[in-house]
Structures are given as structure tokens and as C-alpha cells.
Amino acid sequence: KGAAVTWRERLRALRVDLRPLRGSRDFRLLWVAGTVFYLGGMVSYVAIPFQIYDLTGSNFAVGAVGLVELVPLIVFGLYGGALADHVDRRRLLVVTGVAQVLLTATLAVNAFLDRPNLAVIFVIAALLSAASSLQRPSREALLPRTVEHDQITAANALFSLGMQLGVLVGPAIGGLLIAFVGIGWCFVVDVTGLTIATALFFAMGSYPHIDETTPPSLRGIGEGVRYALSRRDLLGTYLVDIAAMLLAMPVVLFPALAKEVFERPALLGPLYSAETVGALLAAALSGWTSRVHLHGRAIVVAAAAYGACIGLAGLAPSVWVVLLFLALAGAADEVSAVFRGTIWNQTIPDGMRGRLAGIEMLSYSLGPLGGQVRAGVVADLWTVRGSIASGGWACVVGVAVTAAWLRDFWQYDARTDPYAVAERAARAARVTSEEESPAGD
Description:
The chain is an all-alpha fold. It contains 18 helices and no strands. 82% of the residues lie in helices and 0% in strands. The model has no long low-confidence stretch (mean pLDDT 88).
């Protein structure tokens, strides 16, 4: 009986830590807004390429929408980060949210026309990329302000859980809407989600900047880049993520894997969703992450495990084994993402957090784009399996080299790291000051 209780307690300890949701109204608002935002966004993510292909019959046209989104992502991601370190972040969330509602509504109107305009889709896709890139740094910079310092790891896991729910359910809803009621209703669903998310952002409390702000400029962006490069722990998080996405990202090869290797096109859906399922399970069982302090080592081990699972998926003889390794890869990537977010949110000063969020957004947005090119070229020159397997094992090597080179990153300990200690002390001092200020008045 004692053993049974022990196992029950261990299983209970794995459950996702809900303290941030219970203790912070603004985190609840931010979490629900983010979940709804991702859910609606993934419905449109399915609808836009389908509509372009339906209008043109061209795979190149479908791929071109990613190209028109790239420049706004880079430019406005960096500028949005600098803007988030100067203006009211909550207000920026609301303004960019309203912009996304209006832009997506335009896509809906265009989709309901007898002859939708292709140029409108491309222009709106570029503008949506700009608005989303302006918004995201503020959303990420606000997250650590809404919870206590020791709950940041749990908050990251919860936020990721909501995102993975959207990523998993959104495409399924989009596919059903396209099949039964039409593409236009996909955008209507997204407009509804964006409206709800924007209203929740508006309902949040005010979070004025703590320190003197820096107006958005090339100089301010440069300061953020120099700060990121000066810290080997932050540099390690970027390089490990880039190694994983650039070398081991297999998604672009899933159609060929399903159709040519296994000759079962119906398995394309499970291939696309396997990593998300694994990530969702890892987030739901993330209670243990709050008790880990050696975040650098956790990131390295998780990223290497991701690469190894992708490498084994490329070698697996059965599609069911492939799906298993893809799910394990998704779980490993989720663990890496939780601890990367913890290092960022527990150590970066508030006055730099927006710019660093913009830089971080570029690191995990550009990596997959390069990874698609690498995977496709290697598959054409060699084989689909060879491309997947070689990318996975190259990721393991890249992560190991990064850990060996950046020893400070490997040895990172949240209890003793000077940046984490300084940020923890600064937050405690602000709490004390806020508690004493009414009496002083």
C-alpha cells in the first residue's frame, strides 16, 4: 500500500503545475488569449495555402506566400521587440490585435466572393506577418511580469500547452470547415478568436516599464543584439535551437515519406500531428520541470534527444515506429522549449526583454525555413530516409559541439547564475517597494 501511495504521489508530481493559473488573473487572461489566438491562427494556416492552390493549381504559388511573409517577419520582428521596450506593451497587444482582426476579416470577405482576388491574399498575408511580428515580442515580454519569479517555468509550460492545443486542433477544424462549409468560414473562425484574444488583452492590468526606456531605433536593436551575444547562456539557447531546426526539421519531407516511401498517403495527417501530440503530452506532464535548476544541461540533453529521435525515425522500417519516434521528438523539443523560455524570462532585464524576444522570434522562425531547404536538397541528392536520418544525427553533433564550446551554458544553474540572482533580487525589491508604498503615502 505504501508503494502504491508513493507511485500515486510520483504520478501526481508529473501533472502540469497550475499555480500560475490559480494565482494570477492576468496570466489567466494572457493564457486564454494565447490559446484562442493559436487555435484561430492555425485554422487560417490551413486555409490560406489551400485557397491559393485552389485558385492557381501551383505549388510554387503556395510556397511564395512564405516568401512574402519573410521580410515583414524579420523587419517587424526586430522593430516590434524594440517597440515593446518603449511603449505600453498591453496597448501594443490591443492595437496589433485590432489590426489582425481587420486584416483577417478582409480575407474572409475576399474568400466569399465568387472570384477571390489572389493579389489580396498575398498582400494581406504580408501585412498579417507584420502585425503578428509586432505583437509577439510584447506578449512574450509580458508573460514573466504576470507571475512570480519561481513560477516562470510552470508558466512557460502552461503557455506551451495552450499553444500545442491550438496547433493540434486548429488544422483539424480548418480541414473540416473547408470540406463542408467553405474556406471563408475558416477566416470567420479566426476573426472570432482574434476578437476574443484582443478583448482579453484589453482586460489585463497595466504593466508600465520599470526602468528608463529606449526609443525604437537601429541603435536600440543593436544594443539588444550585443547584449544577446555577450551572454554565453543566451547564445547557447539560440544555437541549440537553430541546430535542431536547421539540421533536423523533417516536416517538409512528410508528403514524400507518406506517398513514396510507405506508399500510404492517408498517413500524411498522422505524420504532421505526431510531434504535436508528443509535445502536448510533455506539456501536460511538465510538473517536474519546476524542480530542475540546471537548465542548460536540460536543454542540451533534450535537444540531443530530439535529434536522436529524428535520426531513428529516418531509419525506422515501420511507419508506426516512425510515428512513435516523431512523438518522442516532439516531447523532447517541448522540454527544450520550456527550459529555453525559463532562462530567457528569469534572467533578461525587463528593459531588454522585448528586443531579446524579437531576436528569439527570428531564431526559431528562420531556422525551420533553412531546415526545409536543407532537407529538400539532401532528399533530392540522396533519399528521403537519408535526409531525415542524417539531419537528426547532425543535430546531435551540433548540440554536443555547442555544449562543449559554451561551457557557461552547459553549467548554467538558476540558483547561482548572476543574471538570474540579480533579476530575482530586483523582482523581490519591487514587490517590497509596492507593499510599502501605501504606508509611505
